[in-house]
Amino acid sequence: MAEQRADLDEILKDAHLPSLMAALVHMTGDPGFIRPEWAPTYNPMEREDIGLSSETQAEMRSEAKAAIQAFLDGRPLQLREPDGATLRRMIDFVAGAPIPEGYADFLTDELALAGKSTKDPQFEQPRLKEAARKLKVLVIGAGMSGILTGIRLSQAGVPFEIVDKNPDVGGTWFENTYPGCRVDNSNHMYSYSFEPNHFWPQHFSTQPVLLSYFRGIAEKYGLRQHIRFETFVEQLTWDEAKAVWRVEMRGKDGQREVVEANAVVTAVGQLNRPRFPDIEGMGSFEGPAFHSAEWRHDVDLKGKRVAVIGTGASAYQFVPEIAPEVASLKVFQRTPPWGLPAPHYHENVPEGMKWLLEHVPYYDKWYRFWLFWMVTDGFLPMVKADPTWNGGPAAVGPENAMLREMCVQSIMAQVADRPDLLPKVVPDYPIGGKRAVLDNGVWLAALKRPNVDLITDRIVRITPKGVVTADGAEHEVDVIIYGTGFQASNFLSFLKVKGRGGRDLHESWGGDARAYLGITNPGFPNLFMIYGPNTNIVVNGSIVFFSECAVRYIVGCLKLLAETGARALEPKREVHDAFNARVDEANKGWAWGSPHVSSWYKNAFGRVSQNWPFGLIDYWRATLAPNPDDYVLEKAPEAVA
Ligand code: NAP
Fold first, then answer.
1. How far lies 432's CA from each of 39, 275, 380, 395, in Å?
2. With CB atoms 3.0 to 4.6 Å apart as the test, which of 52, 170, 240, 473 could cross-link to 56 if both were Cys?
3. What residue owns the CA closest to ligand 1's atom 18?
4. Which domains does the chain have, with CATH numbers?
């Protein structure tokens, strides 16, 4: 027992104390663990800083130790579900400030203390179960969203099939295997809310770890038997008479097959079709040239002269990895990325933290909640555009300017010994204009290496030997790596979709994809998109959250069909248009909507086609369940007669 006490001292050094205090309220039934003098004051730039003196923290650890020891010695868990007022105090305590009134039900649902959430399918009634069994849903994609859809459809009792072009599950985590690839959202949040992993090895795990998580989930829920791998869905055609989608697909042997489905869910991500730049002479290069998302592991970079084009989130991860092994590295930058200080970006999750996640009931939920609040709507004010702002185009408002100042200070400290780099690495656009990356120092350290050059002259041509820039220099290299991103705004470009009356989805979009809530489209009944237009996030949170909300809504649409006996639904045109008008207007109010920013968040028309311009709470609310008034429901002919 003495040994166990000694362990607890070590373990508690790794605790996130505010989350632990909330967990101890459950363990002991004593709300005294969330006393005002222990309330944290967070520092947004320093995650370890909870604004409490070391004496206070020692006191908290000491009381925590006694409570946990008693629990380990057999004292039963006292409180599973606190009453509303106590829960509210716990939420405010862990958030570090009173959260706005309207957030309580949303955050309580995210916490899912009783293990139940609005995201669980509700098909209990026998009549609904029976109707669900008669449906067939086809899901395109077996990545994070497709796996999730499969899980929820199984829980709802809806028959389904998943089709994926790849030979395995995992989507983006299967395809992107470049060195250094890792998630840039904390893993304890970038995971399904109902499938926590207490043993993430790092706060931001690497691609193989993520892939293994999604493989494990697919196994656990028995999804593989529902998945057709190496099969490419080419066309969807709506059969008006039968009210089904005819789905044409091609298998790996070229074999074509047509199947019918009452509904189709596209779960294909936004970032899965590599984009190569349009640079003269690209095909003439004599050496290997490849995109970061199609990494050539057969090309040994050791001792080679390498060019990297692009400095977005992908290059930001692989440049520091390859820089030490190549002979020389020329990084061609058009626009520098913003890095948000995150010293723990590559750090392991401490063993004590893993222990607490596994052994202290509810600690995992409160820790996830804290991450969720800190990086979600809590961060949004920093990137909000102030219409009265007159401080220049490098910021969009006073809070944005303040954040900019803090980040510039961090950059300056890192390149103090290389003043020549400073003007090249400080962005001139507002933070939040593009996807910011997490800065633990490795990016600028790589750029400072003697074998690395950061080239900001415009690329004019690629030759058989290398890259020519506007200053006339020809940079001779052996290998070119394109870190130039994805065709993000070409939603569903791989897929021909013929909807009601033979209407073509891409013609109706005219290159400017839109959807109602990013999910449904007028004229395309029972076709549901996950991670569709205007459902991406820039700074606030994890895309898993968006997928969970979208899937809840899609399952809700299937339930609406089952409840009403309708066989198809599609959004009313006016509802779709009014929603999109609101989205476009709201997107102007954020850094990413600034006219001074160009990014993959905007499409060829300059419209922000990717991003959700409201809070997470708004997507959560909007997707709780479909409002029948928003939809045209098509009854079966016999039901009409
Ligand atoms: P990206 O952010 O679109 O970056 C593409 C880079 O290529 C940009 O620096 C861009 O410059 C540059 N570029 C494009 N065309 C060029 C040209 N003709 N000449 C010179 N430079 C050119 O692509 P990405 O890095 O693959 O990231 C895409 C998104 O994927 C990210 O925003 C993020 O959402 C996601 N991602 C996430 C992770 C993660 O979670 N860990 C990792 C990687 C990617 P400009 O900025 O001037 O356009």
1. 29, 22, 9, 9
2. 52
3. 277
4. 2-118+351-376 (no CATH), 126-273+488-639 (3.50.50.60), 282-344+393-482 (3.50.50.60)
Give DSSP secondary structure letters for 502-560.
Answer: G-BHHHHHTT----BTTTBBTTBTTEEESS-TT-B-SSSS-HHHHHHHHHHHHHHHHHH
Q: Which DSSP string corresponds to 195-227?
A: S--TT-SBSS-BHHHHHHHHHHHHHHTT-GGGE
Structure tokens at 282: 């690209």
Residues 596 and 533 sit within 8 Å (Cβ to Cβ): no
Pairing status of strand 566-571 against strand 631-635: antiparallel
Ligand 1 center–CA 148 separation, angstroms:
27
* Whole-angstrom distance, CA of residue 617 vs CA of residue 104: 10
- The torsion angles phi and psi of 561, rounded to 5 degrees, stand at -60, -45
Cβ(409)–Cβ(418) under 8 Å? no
Give phi and psi for 419, each to the nearest 5. Answer: -60, -25
Q: Which of 331, 334, 431 to mutate to test the pocket of ligand 1 (most atoms within 8 A of CB)?
A: 334
Host H or E run for residue 130:
helix 126-133
Compute, in angstroms, the gap from residue 470 CA to the centroid of ligand 1: 21
In sign, the C-alpha dihedral spanning 612, 616, 618, 621 is positive
183 lines ligand 1 (CB under 6 A): yes
Q: Best substitution site from 175, 271, 597 to test ligand 1's pocket, by max atoms within 8 Å of Cβ?
A: 271
Do the Cβ atoms of 265 and 138 come closer than 8 Å?
yes
pTM of the model: 0.96
What are 4-24's pLDDT values in tens digits? 555 999 999 999 999 999 999
Dump pLDDT digits (tens) for 135-150.
999 999 999 999 999 9
Share of the chain above pLDDT 70, in %: 98
Average pLDDT over residues 82-97: 94
d(CA 32, CA 208): 42
Tell me the backbone φ, ψ of residue 598, rounded to 5 degrees: -115, 135
Q: Is the CB of 271 under 6 A from ligand 1?
A: yes
Please enumerate in sequence order all residues whose Cβ is within 8 A of that of 360, keeping only pairs 6 or more positions apart, or say none. Answer: 20, 23, 24, 27, 68, 71
How far apart, in whole angstroms, are the C-alpha atoms of residue 241 and residue 246?
12
To which residue do tokens 């702002």 refer?
A: 389
* Residue-level pLDDT at 3: 46
Structure tokens at 517: 């809530």
List the beta strands (DSSP E) in 121-261.
137-140, 160-163, 227-228, 232-239, 244-250, 256-261
Angstrom CA distances, 548 to 146, 203, 284, 502, 613, stand at 11, 21, 45, 31, 18
Scan for tokens 């476009």, then name that residue. Answer: 584
